[in-house]
């Protein structure tokens, strides 16, 4: 199929350079207003395109695919996470789904590291104290946090992002521990001097800081459940830049309020865009509005992955970033 005739629908505004390149290569339907499309608008867009480029927040479930018609054959997601897409339902209808892995890993890891530093060192509390006029001068016992160096970081899901976090954390003197379904490549494990914990519960009980880095799937829903959070030490912190659904937020709020956990740094929430009210109110919780990958460089490179996937598909090849179920 020649590129010119391929119709590509974008559900949200993408960086100008990405939209310009897409429009040069394909016949595009853009969303310049950047307003999220309603379900009816999404369906109508999908019915008239060969390729849909959705993003986080566009709920593409089985019912959507039933309504979307037969023309659309590729979902080129702008983003790494595809938990908003029923990939099995898409595949059953002959629709390929791709994402944008790797390109955002380093920027996302920077933000995780920022939270790993910010929460124990009370960075945001310090900024607020200054803004509120509570700083009356240096004091030996005021605003004491916890040292980061020498602590144990437990990474749940040591993939691309987890590895990038681990590299940064080592530079800050943390030791690396991880839980995956299987151990990682032994060379990388050796380089990171990382300890593999086949038993997540056993790891949680020993860590000082836990970073959650896995995809959101039915199997990982509330992976950090009330029972698991209860295994953690009272001086421990939780950091999450992946998906809010991985943590039972009410249980996390209970643990923090009761002093059973020392704090949390969260870039994602269970019910975005609304953060959990109790976590918002907790002084030892740093909340960010899902911005871990929000650099212009990441967003342009994410757009480039979208373009590569569409172009390969248009040329009759398998797009490189196909989601292959069972491998996530
Ligand atoms: C993703 O790519 O899934 C991120 O959460 C958006 O930055």
Report on this structure.
With 328 residues, the protein is an alpha/beta fold. The chain has two domains: 3-102 and 295-314, Rossmann fold (3-Layer(aba) Sandwich), CATH 3.40.50; 105-287, 3-Layer(aba) Sandwich (Rossmann fold). It has helices spanning 16-25, 39-47, 62-67, 87-92, 105-118, 123-131, 160-171, 186-192, 200-204, 226-231, 249-257, 277-281, 296-314; strands spanning 7-10, 27-29, 51-53, 74-76, 96-98, 152-156, 175-179, 195-196, 209-212, 237-240, 263-266, 285-287. The model has no long low-confidence stretch (mean pLDDT 97). (2R)-2,3-dihydroxypropanoic acid (DGY) is lined by residues 56, 79-81, 104, 293.
**Bound ligands, each once:** (2R)-2,3-dihydroxypropanoic acid
Please report the total strand number as a whole number.
12
Report the portion of residues in β strands: 5-15%
Q: Tell me, briefly, the overall form.
A: globular
Structural class: alpha/beta
What's the N-to-C terminus distance? 30 Å
CATH superfamily of the largest domain: NAD(P)-binding Rossmann-like Domain
> Can you tell me the number of structural domains?
2
Looking at CATH, which topology of the largest domain would you report?
Answer: Rossmann fold
Tally of helical runs: 13
Low-pLDDT runs: none
Gyration radius, to the nearest Å? Answer: 21 Å
Overall CATH class of the largest domain: Alpha Beta
Question: Which range best describes the helical content: under 10%, 10-25%, 25-40%, 40-55%, 55-70% or over 70%?
Answer: 25-40%
Q: Please, what is the average pLDDT?
A: 97
User: Helices and strands, in N-to-C order?
Assistant: EHEHEHEHEHHEHEHEHEHEHEHEH
| CATH second-level architecture of the largest domain | 3-Layer(aba) Sandwich
